[in-house]
Amino acid sequence: MELTAEAIRKTLSRVQDPDLKKDLVTLGMIQKIKIEGKSVSFDVVLTTPACPLKEVIKNNCLEALEEDFGKEPKWEIHMTSQVTTVREAAPVLPHVKNIIAVASGKGGVGKSTTSVNLAVALAESGAKVGLIDADISGPSIPTMFNVEGEQPTVKKVGEKNIIVPITQYGVKLMSIGFLTPAESAVVWRGPMASSALRQFISDVEWGELDYLILDLPPGTSDIHLTMVQTIPVTGAVIVTTPQKVALADASKGLSMFRQPQINVPVLGVVENMAYFTPEELPENKYYLFGKEGGKRLAEKFEVPLLGEIPIVQSIRESGDTGYPAVMKNGQTKEAYKNLAEAVARQVAIRNASDAKTEVVEIKA
Ligand SMILES: Nc1ncnc2c1ncn2[C@@H]1O[C@H](COP(=O)(O)OP(=O)(O)OP(=O)(O)O)[C@@H](O)[C@H]1O
């Protein structure tokens, strides 16, 4: 077959994105085809830098091309990415492509730990990431990022005061905890918290972000309703442990997002503390809180199980020392990396599906 851009496109239109179930050409993923003699280069623009199928897609392209053009041409395939969004021309946070709420029904199940490691894992994949700590009951993000006691600066843009978020480990951070000294026992009442959060949305210099993670307080109170209605959430991630009481509360949390007045797509469930594993014997698993509760919850609500995170001493220690577990090599890094890939994948699937019309945008 003659080596032309059109012929290459025709061949690549046989290669599908396994998640989006459409071919790469129709999805607009094949760009910058350059032919120089027998050397061909082109870009494959994926929907997220955290794409777990990068290698699979690349190999499928190569296979199809060699089938049609033989082994002689030299193929140079650049795997790049551009995170997708359904928030074009959004009234608030117009440069933030996706807002992901991390929620749990019950407290203490590891929602903040999950948010932190998810945010850092996404940033490590190359995405632009922000994190809002909306946990008014006990903001722990400053500690988990080792920025306790730091205060965001304020700058004037025109007539307006703009808050510059704190950046740590490649993630832009705002926390209710930055606004009150750690030792003070300020109780954030609903309206006060909502107004602080509204400020986080309207007065913070977030810039361009691929993913803004929102660490919500535990539970399903009125405060949640206000928060979720204040912030135009793209999708929600539900964190639970496999324990019966946690699962019952997680069901409530999940159902909250599906209420008609909220109507936020649930991206999936994370089973935290899924099993205990001693770091020196990673193949030994002990199901302290029961087995596969998160999986059953995900099945019941017909949403994906995004990850199973073991209970490991170093995860707790990393939280306390402010050096997220995902930054250290080993088994927990893999678990969080896989989680980030699964979340990014579900966001891309959401954005490509018809469900996008259901995402509610509410002005802050
Ligand atoms: N997979 C894990 N392995 C070991 N320890 C964990 C794990 N996940 C969370 N923890 C620890 O459990 C405690 C509670 O976690 P975290 O603060 O993330 O929970 P939370 O659901 O956000 O709590 P809150 O209800 O206070 O918001 C912390 O000390 C944390 O370090």
Automatic annotation (TrEMBL):
GO terms for molecular function: 4 iron, 4 sulfur cluster binding; ATP binding; ATP hydrolysis activity; ATP-dependent FeS chaperone activity; metal ion binding. Residues 6-66 form the MIP18 family-like domain. ATP binds at G105, K106, G107, G108, V109, G110, K111, S112. InterPro entries: FSCA_dom_sf, MIP18-like, Mrp-like_CS, Mrp/NBP35_ATP-bd, NUBPL-like, P-loop_NTPase, YlxH/NBP35. Keywords: ATP-binding, Hydrolase, Iron, Iron-sulfur, Metal-binding, Nucleotide-binding. Coiled coil: none annotated. GO terms for biological process: iron-sulfur cluster assembly. Pfam families: FeS_assembly_P, ParA. Homodimer. Binds and transfers iron-sulfur (Fe-S) clusters to target apoproteins. Can hydrolyze ATP. In the N-terminal section; belongs to the MIP18 family. PANTHER family: IRON-SULFUR PROTEIN NUBPL (PTHR42961:SF2). This is Iron-sulfur cluster carrier protein. It comes from Algoriphagus machipongonensis. The lineage of its organism: Bacteria, Pseudomonadati, Bacteroidota, Cytophagia, Cytophagales.
